[in-house]
Amino acid sequence: MSKVLYIKANAKPEGVSRTFRVSDSFVESYKESHPDDEVITLDLYKENIGFLTEDDIALHNVEFGEGKDHPVLKYAYQFLEADKFIISAPFWNLSFPAILKAYLDYVSVSGITFKYTSQGPVGLCQGKKVIHFVTRGGAYSHEPLSAFELGDRYLRTLLGFLGITDFTTVALENMDRSDTNIELVVTDAIKDAREEAKNF
Question: Does the keyword Cell division apply (predicted)?
Fold first, then answer.
């Protein structure tokens, strides 16, 4: 049995968010094909994720097991305990919503999700896998706009730092272009996502 963390970072609700329409369908299919797995939904806006305070930062180098019930550190322990991650976040201002960065600051804790050694930092989240769902207004997966894509690249880099290298991106692009049939793109993406979920 695997523990799956479904991380949602969009102020728009289900049914309105194009990103959530695809990722929710993926999760629905995943649950159908993996009935014994535990899927935990973490809607960052509903969690009221905020920015780290001075006191929170002081706790970001801990002995493992310390602060499991702390309102901020609990997210790092939850992240470590998960086997798979589904991250759903739109492409905002060349990256992703700031609330997702705030959450990543919560989970990047020395002593929990990574550690410092005499050889440098070592990620403690090896063997896990991630799928990232994102919708973008333009075509940022190839040149010339790929140089401006900072969201997916940051996620891959940071999660790689934590030890996670099995990373898949599902990107819907050109969603704000007048010549894009948005409903067709989303419908096709939902079909593909439901199939991909079976083997995730």
Answer: no
Count of the separate structural domains present in the chain: 1
pTM value is: 0.93
The reply, when asked if residue 123 is annotated as ligand binding, is no
The answer to whether 136 is annotated as binding is yes
Alpha-carbon distance of 186 to 86, in angstroms, equals 18
Decide: 195 and 27 in contact? Cβ < 8 Å. Answer: no
- CATH number for the domain harbouring residue 190: 3.40.50.360
- In angstroms, the CA 191 to CA 26 distance is 9
Q: Is 194 known to sit in a ligand binding site? A: no
Closest of 170, 179, 117, 161 to residue 141, by C-alpha: 170
Q: How far apart (Å, rounded) are the C-alpha atoms in residues 124 and 126?
A: 6
Rounded to 5 degrees, φ, ψ at 120 are 115, -175
Q: Confirm whether residue 168 is marked as ligand binding.
A: no
Q: How many CB atoms lie within 10 A of CB 104?
A: 21
Cα–Cα distance between 188 and 200 in angstroms, integer? Answer: 18
Cβ-contact 15, 180 below 8 angstroms: no
Range of the domain at 168: 3-197
